[in-house]
Amino acid sequence: MKGKTEVTVNRDARPPEEDRRSPGAFRLLTWNIRKGGGADGDHVPLDEIAGGILAQGPDLVLCQEVFHGAPGNGPRQSEELARCLAMTPAYGPNARYRRGNHGNATFSRLPVVRTENFDPSTNRVEKRGLLYTLVELPDTPLHVFNTHLGLNTVQRRKQVRRIAEVIEERVPPGEPLVLAGDFNDWTGRLHAAILSRCRVECALAELSRAARRSWPSGNPLFRLDRVYLRRLVPEGVRVLREPPFDRLSDHLPIRILSRPVPDRGRERGRAAAGGGRPGKGSRPAADSRGACRSTPRGRPRARPGSSRRASRGARGGEGRGEPLPAGVPARGAPRELRGPGEARLQRYGIAASPPHPPQTPPHPAG
User: Fold this and answer.
1) How distant, in Å, are the alpha carbons of 53, 84, 86, 140, 306 from that of 48?
2) Cβ(190)–Cβ(229) under 8 Å?
3) 231 vs 20: which has the higher pLDDT
4) Pick from 206, 253, 210: which is nearest to 229 by CA?
5) 291-315 residues labelled b (16+ CB within 10 A) or e (exposed)
6) Which of 3, 103, 155, 310 is a plausible cystine mate for 150, CB 3.0–4.6 Å?
């Protein structure tokens, strides 16, 4: 019947062996499939797109430019892909027209709690979308944001501000999130705004600039497709350039293996119940974008604006903690009591001599 697409996929496909999963890890793939238009604009069967996705073994799939045809005008691609991927779909339409509509679609092998579609468009002509899906990992909820931004720089900046507002409203502090999709950021100038406003980390940061390029698929020149994380650790990231991805769309997909940042409070509780001591040698500290880092005990960071030289001077010598030479007062003593330190004299090749005893004034003539 017209409008139906027969989909056959290889369900024996296995994920790549290079991605070894740690406990709690999940695999995500984001891809602008161009409504099935292929790299050169020719129609590509959905079974080929689904087969390429299944071969990567993802738990979450975020697709942009997914087409839903009006009755008699083509397939509802999100439903067809969900059926052949055996995943739960969530679809958010962006642009509507006579033949149907297209938008973002998220497919999940994880339990789905809720979905919402937001409209960050800045005008009536170029409609864009942000699809929010809340899923459940074994130990924590995961907030997934699937987006496709506009072609104009000013539009994109406004859309990022709207995305940051949605994230602030929907994501409680301390819970992990993924923000991924087609950002259309040709110049790369939007990247810093995304990091600061959405308080996320770039999952592709470890890749070279050339390795991050995803468009056009035949000869990638631009880094339009991105994955951003909060309270998640990327364990493996790749832009998939090998066949068949170089001909199935004008964009290349990005595959990421990630796991949540450990909940230190929960670990301390478990350690206390087991009689152990958590975090020996370091303590976690969250930065402004949600990533965790370790701070060695006993070496607190200097406060902004504080004088490191003054603190070093109080310890003596050249700020390395060595004791002051005998007879040389510490920095901060009255000026008339100060003298050059032994280390400084040696630096200039001057032999240190003990301080002169005070001379007694001569007796006045009688």
Assistant:
1) 9, 11, 15, 34, 61
2) no
3) 231
4) 206
5) beeeeeeeeeeeeeeeeeeeeeeee
6) 155
- Nearest by Cα to 20 from 227, 191, 235: 235
Which tokens in the block code for residue 358?
């005070």
Q: For 14-47, what is each residue's pLDDT tens digit?
A: 455 444 677 789 999 999 999 999 999 888 999 9
Q: What is the 3-state secondary structure (H, E, C) of 141-177?
A: EEEEEEEECCCCHHHHHHHHHHHHHHHHHHCCCCCCE
**Cα–Cα distance between 39 and 245 in angstroms, integer?**
9
Rounded to an integer, what distance in angstroms lies between the CA atom of residue 93 and that of residue 158?
Answer: 20
Q: What is the pLDDT of residue 214?
A: 97
Residues counted in the chain: 366
Q: What is the pLDDT of residues 102-147, one digit of tens each?
A: 999 999 999 999 999 999 999 988 999 999 999 999 999 999 999 9
Both tokens of 292, joined, read 């965790």
Could you give the CA distance from residue 259 to residue 290 in angstroms, rounded to a whole number? 14
CA distance 76 to 124: 24
For tokens 């004791």, the residue is 323
Instruction: Convert 103-121 into a string of H (helix), E (strand) and C (coil).
Output: EEEEEECCCEEEEEEECCC
Amino acid at 326: A
| pTM summary value | 0.70
Q: Which residues have a Cβ under 8 Å from the Cβ of 69 and sit 6 or more positions away?
A: 3, 75, 76, 99, 100
Integer Cα distance of 223 and 182 in angstroms: 9
Both tokens of 260, joined, read 């949540």
Average pLDDT of the chain is 79
Pairing of strands 112-118, 129-136: antiparallel
